[in-house]
Amino acid sequence: MTHQPLSRIAQNLRDGTLTARQLAEAACAAHDASEPALNAYKHWAGAQMLAQAEAVDLFVKSGQDHGPLMGMPVSAKDLYGVPNMPIFAGTDAALPAAWQAAGPVVQAVTGQLGLISGKTHTVEFAYGGMGTNAHWGAPVNPWSAANAPRAPGGSSAGAGVALAQGSCLVALGTDTAGSVRVPAALTGQCALQTTRGRWSRAGIVPLSPSLDSPGILCRTVEDLAFAFGAIDPGRPQAVQARALSGMRIGAVQNIVWDGADPSIAETTRAALARLERNGAAVTDITLPHLDTALEIFGQGGLAAAELRAFMEMTFPERIARLDPMVRARVEMADQLPAVEYLRRAAVLSAAAQAAAAVFDTVDVLVTPTVPISAPLLADLADPDAYRQANMLTLRNTAFVNLFGWCALSLPTGLDHNGIPVGLQMIAPPRQEEALLAMALGVEAALGRGPDLLGPAPRAARPA
Questions:
Q1: Is there a catalytic annotation at residue 77?
Q2: Which of 160, 172, 296, 361 could connect to 187 by a Cys-Cys bridge, CB 3.0–4.6 Å?
Q3: Active-site position among 117, 156, 167, 179
């Protein structure tokens, strides 16, 4: 039932072979079978979802159609305001009720009578790539061995876990340096990071206004394209797969392979070879100014100063209570002169403009999404180990945000730990439709994630 593409589920809801109540019940059953062991949700809204599903079924019977996501369970990262649901933003206490107001992205879902399944866990204020949270614990990567829980990736940590669990069909996240692509890669899902400014950030607790971008996670690229079309305010036409024949793929060679797990490198290169055999023109590319962008990222980029400013203006009393892994970087921002912040912004803008020339010769760039396997959660308790893993995990995704581009991740296989491996595809600003079209062609050649990987060992199988 729920393993079908979203387009088929939407059709089944409308022709009466499936009900919203059945979808909601399946989501609740999947949640109950593996939560709290997986710890995907900060707030579960199962009872509310079931009640709303019954109302949706009445609308369907009366011939009403409110949009593509009608009746579908959709989770929201705990940075999104959702009316009558508490919002913590990963902190130790709920934010004031005013932060529950829905912005345009949530309104797009609820306006179509999509069912919000609950609020998924996030790293505190989304400031981290591993998915850990000192206040509420980390969601557990559902591909972990039973006695060795691994990181789910962050900061949209619960989003990928919830999808693998089967408690939602679409997951709303945010992405500042890889925060939808990283958890998608490490949990075997697909994710789209939209171009900054394409989707409104209103109604979402900020980390870095200069870099934040709403995004979505789904089980397949096909589902991503469906959900993107449903949510995007431009109401784009349905995305059609682009044939691999003639597709110019630039495989970035500088920096992104450094320190890569051999099994991840092997899996990624095998996927690229398969694309080449299917007609794609795969060319090795040196991406200009990548080192410049990553040097600034390693120094704290723009996010540390912008989060510090937001907290000083909004929640100054919470700074001392921050997760230690977050607080250390926020406090370091005190030492950043305004002139250095402005210099970084100017250098990144110039670097992005120069680097974009690469798209004159290729249609899309590719890298491994995450170059290392998901670390053991126990190892991340050590601050030095955390910092090293966090920087490596975000390295291949962060420059996309710094350059203002859009990107997605899709699975290509499993690494030596049995953790999913992601392939990142990158396109110029506001080229989401073209990116999705190319990714649909890639998915057709490599296989859909659920078929390629099978079910996550620690997650409930969808009905």
A1: yes
A2: 160
A3: 179
